[in-house]
Amino acid sequence: MKQMKLWMLATIFTSCGLTVITSCTNEDNPDVTPTDEVEAQLQQMSLREKVGQMFYVRPECLDTTIHFNRPSSIDESVDDLTKIRLQAVNETMRGVNEKYPVGGIILYAHNIEDEAQLARFIPEIRSLKGSPLLCIDEEGGRVARIGRNSNFQVKTYESMGAIGATGDPQNAYECGNTIGTYLHRYGFDVDFAPVADVNTNPENIVIGARAFSDDPQVAAPMVTNYLQGLKDAGVTGCIKHFPGHGDTKADTHFGYASSAKTWSEMLECEMVTFRAGILWGCQLIMTAHISAPNVTGSDIPATMSSVILQDKLRRELGYQNIIITDAMEMGAITQQYTNAEAAVGCVKAGVDIVLGPQVFTEAFDAVVKAVEDGTISQQRIDESVRRILRLKQSIRRNQ
After folding, report:
1. Catalytic: which of 214, 253, 352, 365?
2. What secondary structure does DSSP assign to 87-147, as a single string?
3. Residue range 65-79, pLDDT digits in tens
4. Is 67 a catalytic residue?
5. Which pairing describes strands 138-140 and 143-144: parallel, antiparallel, or unpaired?
6. Per-residue pLDDT reduced to its tens digit, 198-255
7. Please, what is the angle between helix 2-15 and helix 18-27, to 10°?
8. Residue 184: active-site member
């Protein structure tokens, strides 16, 4: 009932227009202005320490003896890494980490064996330089790294589409809270869920039942209730994939994908769920690697578009918190850009966190060099690091 009231309030405010959304996001979020503690920490950090906070990577990215190809499937991610099954921090990783601090680590199915192994692995990760947050894709349904592991006795879900079909947002809350409860128990900080896409294209091969509905008015309260469920369990959620992957046909894991929609059309559909998430107070929004030529005037992926990220998401929708990329190792990025080009391009466009570059050290060094030669300003880096430190402070305060 509490969650339904939150959604009803959000709906009332949304109908009042974007000005209300912007003011609510800023005025009702006490963490928008950096605290003295965050500012003091920022001032003491070196450039490399700051840049490290902006990278969230696979554990394998810290082991430079491992080389892997682009993702081969959404469910198991990378065949090469599945065979390697990196499930502990080794000395190579610690050595690389001395020069390359990292703000977060994301674990995939092949990094997780059972409860005993995970209980050993997570403290090892937390000891790494950069005080990384622990992240995972645990949506429920077919994207569930723990839920689909038979060594874990946790409740599983058919799909978010099945939850959306019930028409009851309380079911989305229960799902988010159940998943958040076991993630928190195992030691995770951030869940890259829920999917806020509206599944409007029946030919969509990547989103499908991962979305709650093909109707934004149904999907929006599901998204906010799922977020609330995670939050009440002590886990931070992340809505994805901005500006909406539900109307595409191609899969960005493998290559180029685009949406033909105009911004006006997106406002009537995809932005309904993202507006609801912003009004609720979501702390992270993940970008899609899709292009939106009728919004940006080019084929550049949204992840690297200042029009999408700055003009639309920040200025028009009033979002003030963290923008994180989808995995930069995905084909939509790697087939068009080098590690360096992609990392620098998305930071210049306004991204705060670069998730999963294929070659972490190259991407890291490229961003450092871009700051040193003036391609990216120190102020641009500081803006992102403030947001990240603020999130970390909030998460650790509530642990």
Report:
1. 253
2. -S--HHHHHHHHHS--SEEEE-GGG---HHHHHHHHHHHHTSTT-PEEEE-EEETTEETTT
3. 988 765 444 444 455
4. no
5. antiparallel
6. 987 666 556 889 999 999 999 999 999 999 999 999 999 999 999 986 555 444 454 4
7. 130
8. no
